[in-house]
Write a structure and sequence with these properties.
Number of domains: 2
Shape: globular
Distance between the termini: 38 Å
Helix content: 40-55%
CATH topology of the largest domain: Beta-Lactamase
Order of helices and strands: HHHEEHHEEEHHHEEEHH
Number of strands: 8
Number of helices: 10
Strand content: 15-25%
Largest sheet: 6 strands, antiparallel
CATH superfamily of the largest domain: GAF domain
């Protein structure tokens, strides 16, 4: 569970606690949350009670476990429809998956990280980390690097600063300098690779989804295993993935893409 480093008043604290619950990935008791929380016991309890009263958390008095509430499900569904590329891209990732028979991922950037918003499994699925709704690292996934490479210079540098540079495999890029050099090559080439950088035996080719003005809207990847393919094999899918990434970008042109903002857009009078 991540320690809380910055909040925006009570709402920020409550959302940070909600993030902590989500990161556990299962129902959890209060004492377990307390051990990993940076808040005092009384503060944490108050925030959890508020979240429970608002339906953001659910509490089972018999087991004394808290879990994410159904109100979050409703909000997530609305966000998926309003702020996700997934509804627009569905027909295209269906077609791409059918053409190549490999796993296809659709993703968007979230504070420099990869938010997987949709996925189509291969004809013969393989076990891997990525699932719709999961957050993955930007610096060591093909789709993450594809999106980072096409950000403008200022936003790219900000995103690079947000990377953890944890070493997942022997192929992981572990410094900002190495990542920036790789991003320059990706931008020249037009597409990215994951060379077993996040998971051993998992490789991919990925392309950015750009607006007609060149703005990064998301990313598309084709993922496989070294047990079935090598990078040269995946390069054969280059034309397919670039074609469908372009189609998604065209279809999303009229879509209101939500801007990522570091501060609230609401200003006081």
């Amino acid at each position: 569970m991540n320690k809380i480093v910055k909040t925006d008043g009570t709402v920020g604290k409550a959302l940070a606690v909600l993030d902590e619950f989500a990161s556990v990935g299962r129902p959890v008791r209060f004492n377990e949350m307390l051990v990993n929380s940076s808040y005092p016991k009384a503060t944490l309890y108050r925030l959890i009670q508020t979240l429970t009263n608002q339906g953001m958390l659910s509490y089972d008095p018999t087991t004394q476990y808290y879990s994410l509430g159904m109100r979050l499900v409703r909000l997530a569904h609305a966000a998926w429809q309003q702020s996700s590329l997934a509804p627009i891209a569905r027909v295209h990732i269906d077609a791409l998956s059918k053409e190549i028979g490999e796993t296809v991922h659709l993703a968007q950037l979230d504070n420099g990280q990869v938010l997987y918003v949709d996925k189509r499994n291969a004809t013969s699925p393989i076990e891997m980390f990525s699932q719709a709704g999961k957050i993955g690292p930007g610096y060591c996934t093909g789709v993450g690097k594809a999106m980072l490479a096409f950000l403008d210079e200022e936003r790219q540098l900000q995103a690079v600063k947000l990377q953890a540079f944890h070493t997942y495999t022997d192929s992981t890029l572990t410094t900002p300098e190495a990542l920036i050099a790789e991003l320059k090559e990706i931008r020249k080439r037009g597409y990215a690779f994951d060379r077993e950088e996040h998971e051993n035996q998992i490789i991919c080719i990925a392309a950015p989804i750009l607006s007609p003005q060149g703005k990064v809207m998301g990313g598309l990847s084709v993922t496989s295993s070294t047990l079935r393919h090598n990078l040269d094999d995946l390069t054969d899918f280059k034309t397919n993935i670039l074609h469908y990434a372009d189609l998604i970008g065209q279809d999303a042109e009229a879509w209101h893409f939500p801007e990522q903002q570091s501060t609230s857009p609401i200003q006081g009078n």
